[in-house]
Every structure is written in C-alpha cells, then in structure tokens.
Design goal:
This protein is of the alpha+beta class. It has helices spanning 11-45, 76-99, 103-126, 147-166, 169-173, and strands spanning 49-51, 56-63, 129-137, 140-141. It has one domain. Helix content is 62%, strand content 13%. A 4-stranded antiparallel beta sheet has the order 1-2-3-4. It is globular, with a radius of gyration of 18 Å.
C-alpha cells in the first residue's frame, strides 16, 4: 500500500489541499458561531456564569482587546484597526493555504482562518469578541476564550509542528 505524497507540488494537488483547508475553515467558523450563540443565551438565562466543574465555567465575557484581553480597544477606530489587522493576518494565511504543497499545512492554515474569521465577525457585529470558556484552578484563573481562539492556537501549533518535525531537512534549507 502506497502512502500519500505529502510534498507534491502538482497544481491539482495544491488546489485539493486548498479546498480541504477552506472547507475546514468554513466548518470551524460555523461551529464557532453556533457555540457562541447557544452558550451566550444559556449563560445569560443562568445569571452570567454557569459552573460546569470545580475548574471550568461557562461565562459571559466580551473581549474588546486582542488575545486574552490585552490592548482593550475603546474607540471606533481602535475596533476597526483590530479588524483590519486580523483581516490582514487572515489574508496572509489564505495565501499560504493557496500555495500549500502539504496537506498538514493546508489544514493548519484552514484552522487558523476559520477561527480568525469567527472572531472578525464578532468584532464587526458586536464591537468585541464573545469569550465563554473559563478555566481556573488553585487560585489561578486563565483568561476566558472561545472556539475561534482555540482554532487559531491549534492551527499555529499544527504549522509549527509541521515546520519543526515533519518538513524534510532538504525543504527547510531551500
């Protein structure tokens, strides 16, 4: 049994990888938006926070800044500036996705794109990103996040893993 060629530069193969990455982005975007909608309603109906376990809650948090609430934006221009930066980064990963000659690269880019678009839509619609996954333990509290944030982080991890451990040494030098 032959294993799939993960380093093909065939244009048709690249298009298949791009389609797979974009399909994954669409699926993850939809999952992100559905979870935000459902959890937001559920949490609001239950007082703004729902304890799930001793270390995990569903919460009602609007993040007006970037990752983990840093750089909180208050003005209209700051919000649109964050949207523009996120859109530019998303476009960069779309270009990388389109040029991907490895399926794992395409899937990593698709994961980042889906998450990024999910948060961009929130920021356009609400002026902030809805975060609801709230972990805490032993007096430490991790900043709330959402499915889109998780997708971006996982996508970056996939691309980093691929670059560090899966890309053949001959490709890394060229």
């Amino acid at each position: 049994m032959n294993s799939p060629d993960l380093t093909s530069t065939d244009t048709n193969t690249q298009r298949k990888y791009a389609f797979a990455g974009l399909s994954l982005a669409l699926i993850l975007f939809v999952i992100d938006q559905i979870t935000k909608y459902l959890v937001r309603g559920y949490v609001l109906d239950n007082g703004g926070s729902v304890e799930i376990t001793g270390f995990f809650n569903l919460s009602y948090v609007w993040n007006e800044g970037v990752s983990f609430g840093m750089m909180q934006s208050q003005t209209h221009w700051e919000i649109w500036g964050l949207i523009a930066i996120a859109a530019a980064i998303t476009a960069l990963f779309a270009v990388i996705l389109w040029r991907a000659d490895r399926l794992i690269t395409a899937m990593g880019c698709g994961t980042i794109i889906g998450g990024s678009i999910g948060n961009i839509v929130d920021r356009i619609q609400f002026g902030a990103v809805y975060d609801f996954l709230d972990f805490h333990a032993y007096g430490y509290h991790w900043p709330s996040f959402n499915v889109a944030d998780s997708c971006v982080l996982i996508g970056i991890a996939i691309i980093a893993y691929d670059s560090l451990f899966l890309t053949p040494k001959s490709e890394q030098k060229s």
